[in-house]
Each structure stands twice: as C-alpha cells, then as structure tokens.
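Issue 218. Parser rejects a valid record. Input:
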Amino acid sequence: MALTRLLADRPDLPVVAAGGVMDGHGVRAMIELGAVAARLGTAFAACPESGADDAFRAALAGSSAEHAAPLHRPLPAATVIDLLEQERASGRGGRDNGPVTATTNDPLCLPAPDPDLDVLHACLGSSWGLAGELTPLHGERDRNFRLDTVAGRYLLKVYNPADGEAVLDLQRSALRHIRAVDPDLPVPDVVPTQDGRGWLEVTGRDGRRSLAWVMTWLEGRHPTPADLAPAQLRDWGRTAARLGRALRGFVHPAAAYPIAWDIRRLPQLRPWLSAVDAGRRPTVEAVLDRFERRVVPDLAALRAQVVHNDLAPGNVLVDDSSTITGITDFGDMTHTALVCDVAVAASDGLSGREDGLQLVPEFLAGYHSVTPLEPGELALVADLMAARNAAAILITAWRTREQGWAPQIDDEAYHQLGLMLDVGLDALTGRFTTALRTGTPGPSYGGGGLPYPRRATEELLDARARSLGGLELSYARPVHLVGGRGVFLEAVGGRRYLDAYNNVPVLGHSHPAVVDAVCSQLATLNTNSRYLQEAPVELAERLLATLPDRFDRVLLVNSGSEANDLAWRIARHATGAAGGIATSWAYHGVTEATYAFSPESWGTADRPAHMRLVEPPPGPLSAVPEAAEDLHAAGLGVAAMLVDGVFTSDGIHGPAHDWTSAAAAAVHDAGGLYVADEVQAGHGRTGDSLWSFVAGDVPADLVTLGKPMGNGYPVAAVAGPADLVDPFLEGTDYFSTFGGGTAACAAALAVLRTLAEDRVVDRVAAVGAHLVEALREVTADRAEVAGVRGWGLAVGADVVDPATGRPDPQRTGRIVDGMRERGVLIGRTGPGRNTLKIRPPLVFGDEHVDLLTDALTATLAALR
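Output the parser choked on:
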C-alpha cells in the first residue's frame, strides 16, 4: 500500500498502519500530507485509486465528513500555507499570480467576460439539456444569469478568464464537502452536464475563453442593514461558524493561490498606497503599519484552514423573516487564518450602519457559540476588521487607477475605518473581549435632538464675545467643534481632528459605556448623597479598592479644583498651620485657595504670602525642606504641599520617584500633609499604575481626583484616612450638594469598570513607549526639538532656538498651529511656553501614534 511505503519513507510521521485507530493529530497529519502529496513523492492526488486507505484518500480529496470530526483544531497558518503555496508553485495550483500583485492572470486585473447569449443558450441546450430565459444578475468579476426553465430555476455562471479548472474544482469540491459535513447549510450544488462534466468552456464576443457551469437556484433576497437586528446577527455569526466548521477538514491545492482579498496578506498591498487619495492615505498607512507591527507576528500561530472569506450581505440570501436561506459566491475562498474569516464576516455584515461597532459582539457571540474563539484570535478581530476596510480602499484605488473603474466600496470602507480609529482598535478589542466574556454586548444608544440650534462660526464667535466676554479660545483661528468620538473631534464642515491634547475624556469622547451609564441613571434617579442610595457607596468602595490600605474615606465633589480646595481645608484643619508649598509653575485649580497653589495662573500678580515655591525635578532635593523652614520662620508652619505626579504644567517631568518621596518626607518632618494631585496624572495616565503616587510608593496623606474620573462628567473626589477626614467632617459639617450626585457616580463607576475590563493601563504603557520612541526618531535630526520625554501618555518635548538652544515659544506656537492645520490637536506648557504637551485620551493607539508623528514630520519640514 502507498501508506505503508510512505511510513517507510517518513517513519517520523504521526500516523498508524491501516486498520489502526487514528487520533485527531494523526488526521491532521493526513490532511497536511494530502496537501503536499506531490512533494512527498506520492501519486495519491493524481490516482486516488492507488490503494491508499480511506482516511488518507478522504483527507487528500477534502470531501469526507467522517474524518473531519476528530480534528482537534485546524493547522496553524504558518504550518500549511507555505506548503500549499509550494504545491501551487509546482504547477498543480490555481491562478498563477504569485505574491499578491496584480498580473495579467488575476481576476482583479482582467475585465469580466463578455459572453454571447446565443452561444450560452446553445451550450445550455446541448450540454445540460436546459432551455429557458436568461436574466443578467450582479457580478463583479464574473457574469451571472438566472435561468428560468419549465423545470425550475438555475444559476448560470460564466467565470472570469483568469479562473482555470483548478479554481472551479476547488469550489465544486468545497461545496461537496460542506454538504457532506453539514447538509443543512444552504449552499448551491453544481449541476453536471449530460455527460457528467462539471463545466465547459465558452468563447466570448471578445474572443476570450471562459469556463461556465450551472448551479442549483437558491431562493431569497440579499439582506439590508435593517434586516440584521441583534437576533439575526447572532444567527449570522452561527452560520459563519458552521460554514467554517464544515470546511475545516477540507484541503485542495488551489486553495493556496494568493488573492488580494486575503487580509492576512494586507502588507503585500502596500505598493498600492500611491493610488489612494492623499487625504485617506495616512489613515490607511497607519493601519498597515500597525498590522505589520502588531498582527503579523501573532497571526501565523493561529488556527488556519480553507474559508469562505466573503460572507457579506451580497453573498447571503434571506427570507421575509430574515432567516438565512442561501450562501453564494465562493470565489474568494482561500486558505488563511480562521479568524480572518470571522473578521470579514463581521466587518461586511455590519457595513452601512452607524451602530455597527456596537453590534459586533452580537455576531461574535453567535460565532463563539458554535466555534469558541481562542484568546489570541479574539485579540485580533478588531485589527482584522480594520484590515478588511483598508484592503477595500487599497484595492478599489488601485483598480480605479489602473483599469479606470472599480465597484465603489471604498467610501463606506473609509467611513467604517474612521469609526474604528475614532474609538481605537485596542479599545474595541477590550470591548469585544469583555462582551464575549460577560455575555453583555454593550450599550447601544442614540441621541435625541440637541436643545440648541447650530450657528455659523462667525456668528457664534460674535455671540460668544458678547455673552462670555474675553474667555480664552484655543488657536487664533478657533476650532468650531460639533462632535467627538473616541480620540477624534469633528468640526463644522466635517473636518476631523486627532485629539492628542485633552486628558479629561480618559476613555475617549462619547464613550458608550459612560453615555449609557449617565443616561440610564438620569432616567432613573439623580439626587444628592444625603439620601441613602447605592451609587456613591459603590463608587467609594471601588475607589478605595484601588488605593493603599491606609486610605479608608472618600469625599465626593464636582471638580479637581473643588477637590484640591477641600484637601487644603482638611490639611489646615488637621495641622493648624497656614503655609503651602507648590512647584514653580504648577496648576491646581481656580478657587481662591487653589489659585494660590497655581503659579502658572498668577501672571504679574505677587506670590501669595503663605506660599513657597520649589523647582520641579530635576530640581534640588533640598528645596522642599528649605521652603518648609522658611514657612516656619514666617510663623505660618506647613499645612500641605500639593504635587502633580507628572508635573504637567511645569513642563512634564515624571517619573521622579526619588524627588517626590523625598518631598513627602520633608513635608512630614515639617508637620504638614503631602497631597497627591492625581487630576492629570491619575486614572492610568502613567501606564505604571492607576495612580502616579502608587507607582512611586510615595507616602501621600491625601489624594485628589478630578473630572477624568467621570470621563468629563463633573465628578471628583478626595481620598484619605479616617483619622484625617472624620475630625474634619465633625468639626465643619461639610457637605457638597451634588458632589456624589447619582448620575456623576454612575459615570465614574463606568470609567473604573472600563479601565479594568479593557486593561487600559497596560496598553498605555506600551503605546506611550512607542510614542516617545517615534517622536525621538522623527526629531532626531531637528535641532529645534530637544528633550523628548514621557511617562505613559503624558509626553513632552522642548522647542528651542536652534542657534542658541534657548526656549522658543514663538516656534512652539507655530508647531502647535501647524499640527492643527494637519488635523492633530496638541498643546504647549512649561514656564517658557516652549514644551509641546501631548496628553491624549488613554484609548490612543499605535495607529494614532503614526498619524501624529506623520503630522509632526510635515509640520517641522514646513518650518524650514
């Protein structure tokens, strides 16, 4: 027997002699061997009658359900794809188009066939014995016709001239395999000719030859977005998984031909970037860069098999109840990572709807109920969905440039890609993972009408000046914003800006978890914390669980300024002292008490008499004890020192654990309290911990939190030990009317939950490191940019005069304005107003880093 000969040649193969029991790993080996039979020197592919046992022949033919079931899992992509491609290269495969570059033998390159209807009617009559009316149907690369006969309906398909017999045999064999494994899946059958052939060759009016066949007709219509409610999306996912399971034991040499629509091959489409519209190119390039950096290293180790690869609404039929009645068009079938098929079906199935991303978990839940997704697969779904949209943009652009026309799918693909990048691919991954784990797909919301009219920009500027006076606006030419989602803001006219400045919406703008929590709570109850209710208690408990054990009290307020003001009051009550210490350009709030701690805001005013300032790190460690001694000498004593752990307004100087620990010790020695102001440094901004002072093990006495706590909803807090807080409450009868209001607590709880479930802090560390490295790389040869530094996603870079090395605030302002003109918002800070301040929402991802550094590169080049 051939199997015996094979075992003699390859004794290391995990198979057994005929008649023995073959486990799942053995069957996997058979499938692999079937795919590379020619390479192994056997003749099984050409001669299935050669005497090999049934299991081997079934694996080779890829059409037996009996031996598909024992498979533990499909082979990893890296294991089989290379072998299959070697098989294809040997001459046994399908389209000979090599790596994914369009050639003259590629269906993307060749025009669709131009069949002669008279020839088709003649072929139908002579070869199939069928006669009837032909009605043209949609087809991108092929020509499809509905054939109405007396006996019933059929589908006549005339293939693109690029598709040879191996491609048709691949599809016919796959359809047979699917029906054998899962007979209830609604796939068509190939109708043989009267002499038993599967297809025949026809010549078109242009002289080109194509293969054609007849298939059974499937009833139904293509679904619209409105047809795909959550229940239907789950069914869509289950159907996609059943189709994948039906194909997982199937192999065929032609499955190895490279196609541009295999999103595993996205990096090979990079040469087509030049065809993409210049306005879209940075977005697509950012997805390509991230794919190569984050996806490629992991994709090769995941499950791989032959997949349908195009379960889009245009290839699915449904009945009036939106139940799936047909799966068509196996033209993009290929061997790739299984999760690529998942991402394609999810992306295409939800295309055309604004709430698509919120509904992806419904599809994934359906799929997961049939074929559980592995953690490594789930971690790539969002990236692969983005890759599908990027591929659609690239392929459409290339075909339009080279051929003058392509199906216009790129506008919707770019829109969907924008929605994904608004939220952030890492954030989407967290949402999908959480939804699948908890069984809760996530919030779905829609806003009603806004209670104010839109105004023209100039009209709004005039009205603002009349009613709000001289309050500062960012930029000499203000940005008139009308919307925000994720890390992007939208201005009047549709211009989108990458937000790399606003730290308050830590989860990104309009995060659905926060919106849902606030709206639900406002629709239920919203009152003050003097009434017994769960929300403020739950919030206090969850906050304390994130802090060191010495903290056991939480006071809820409305803003960071109010929190710092309250901390100052507690410190004065506890110490009886009146002196305060702050860093030399700090900012801690807008109340009278916190203004004293905010020299950034003093302007030309004198330093308050009870305040002493010290230089931030790397300033001398002796500065704090000297300031404390001076306060004691003035008869004020030391009540508190307030410290922002990343020293944002001072120019961004964290981490500085030695400095902050020494400062805390000096304050304690002087009898004062050390207040860790986590308004800007907290909620995971540093990537080391949820709170910057915890990362440095600084012995803070009080901790203050600001509006990032509610993603911008007005809520803040002071946390401290009972021996400081309780005496203050007893001695002052303190109360804040809507500090700890129910809706505010709901927002803060949603933020804490999302930070934990989406593992935001871990991602901040990785993305922050990438951002600093990328900024250093693009500014390495720029003498005007120095000292790029950062801690997590608190990043700064000094701008100086190249000739003198002195701070250059004018140049800094031009860079900030130039970035705005290129669609990226950043700020500036520091005593010299010459430090670029990059402080984005924490859902900022690698793809956004690329957009930012591209804009900075162009801005710096324009300044030369």
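Fixed in the parser; the record now loads. Residues 314 and 740 are 51 Å apart (CA to CA).
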